């Protein structure tokens, strides 16, 4: 881990372009399931459904949509969906998946902070952001401004992501929980150099460097409040969709995710936040 360079977008775009090819053929994403079963939705969206509610007929934007499995899932629930991502390689996979499955989804290439310019202000009933998204953004305040700018008055946000407490757990001592990374947003972020990704892969990554930021839960809530949003729900979960701490976790049969093997009440792993634009 080193201090972050200025051009974080170039590093992260290259990293996610590389991941797109790996993820498109991985068992973790299992794109064949969506092609073979017209009712299939992603496990992430299935987890969110009780809080997501009925999205049929809503104009939905999925920020940081990657290869589009969650985006397609929202479309299959009846939403009119636009997916946005900074990675052209990811969007190429997402567009192919939509075409193969007959889904009418608009995909737009842009980083998150350019979303209002790319898509237009006040166009959407729902902003959806799934797991593993906001850690790639340096300013949670600018993210909240973008969310509010995309929503119509009365439109809502559903965000499920890694809990910042989990984000502060380092990997120097993989056999125990140790807070050795920042919990709060730091200006420079951190550069990581790693050739593996979070699902099974048939090759190592070649664009190995990426820049990430943690954002405290209070920072996230405050940013939304400061940009005209009203908090309507906040739930902390004891499970996470990927094997975040391999030596300390086991499968959770109830959710199909992973939880701490011992005393799972010690650490929140993910959270779901809901808010409405005033």
Briefly say what this structure is:
This protein has about 280 residues and is α/β, with parallel strands linked by helices.
CATH T-level fold name? Rossmann fold
Order of helices and strands: HHHEHEHEHEHEHEEHEEEE
CATH architecture: 3-Layer(aba) Sandwich
Q: Say how many strands there are.
A: 11
How much beta, percentage-wise? 15-25%
Question: Percentage of helical residues?
Answer: 25-40%
Number of helices in the DSSP assignment: 9
- Main-sheet strand order equals 3-2-1-4-5-11-8
**Could you name the CATH class?**
Alpha Beta
Using the alpha-carbon principal axes, give the shape.
globular
Q: In the CATH hierarchy, what is the superfamily?
A: Vaccinia Virus protein VP39
Number of domains: 1
Biggest sheet descriptor: 7 strands, mixed
Quickly give the structural class: alpha/beta
Unreliable stretches (pLDDT < 50, length at least 5) are 1-5
Radius of gyration: 18 Å
- For the record, give the distance between the C-alpha atoms at the N and C termini, rounded to a whole number: 40 Å
Mean pLDDT: 96
Verbal overview:
- The protein is α/β, with parallel strands linked by helices.
- The protein has a single domain (8-277), classed as Rossmann fold.
- Helices cover 31% and strands 24% of the residues.
- The strands form 3 sheets. A 7-stranded mixed β-sheet has the order 3-2-1-4-5-11-8, sandwiched between helices. A two-stranded antiparallel sheet has the order 6-7. It has a two-stranded antiparallel sheet with strand order 9-10.
- Helix 1 (8-24) runs parallel beside helix 5 (88-101) and helix 7 (140-150) packs across helix 9.
């Amino acid at each position: 881990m080193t201090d972050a360079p200025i051009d974080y977008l170039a590093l992260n775009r290259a990293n996610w372009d590389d991941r797109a090819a790996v993820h498109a053929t991985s068992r973790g994403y299992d794109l064949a399931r969506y092609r073979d079963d017209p009712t299939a939705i992603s496990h992430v969206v299935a987890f969110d459904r009780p809080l997501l509610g009925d999205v049929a007929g809503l104009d939905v934007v999925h920020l940081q949509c990657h290869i589009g499995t969650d985006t397609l899932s929202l479309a299959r629930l009846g939403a009119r969906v636009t997916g946005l991502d900074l990675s052209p390689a990811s969007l190429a996979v997402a567009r192919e998946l939509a075409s193969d499955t007959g889904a009418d989804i608009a995909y737009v290439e842009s980083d998150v902070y350019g979303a209002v310019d790319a898509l237009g202000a006040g166009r959407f009933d729902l902003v959806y952001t799934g797991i593993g998204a906001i850690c790639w953004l340096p300013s949670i305040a600018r993210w909240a401004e973008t969310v509010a700018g995309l929503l119509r008055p009365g439109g809502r946000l559903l965000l499920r992501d890694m809990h910042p407490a989990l984000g502060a757990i380092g990997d120097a001592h993989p056999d125990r929980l140790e807070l050795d990374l920042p919990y709060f947003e730091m200006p420079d972020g951190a550069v990581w150099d790693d050739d593996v990704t979070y699902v099974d892969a048939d090759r190592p990554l070649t664009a190995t460097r990426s820049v990430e930021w943690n954002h405290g839960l209070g920072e996230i809530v405050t940013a939304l409040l400061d940009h005209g949003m009203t908090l309507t729900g906040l739930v902390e979960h004891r499970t996470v969709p990927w094997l975040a701490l391999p030596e300390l976790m086991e499968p959770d049969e109830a959710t199909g995710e992973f939880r701490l093997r011992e005393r799972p009440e010690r650490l929140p792993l993910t959270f779901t936040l809901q808010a409405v634009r005033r």
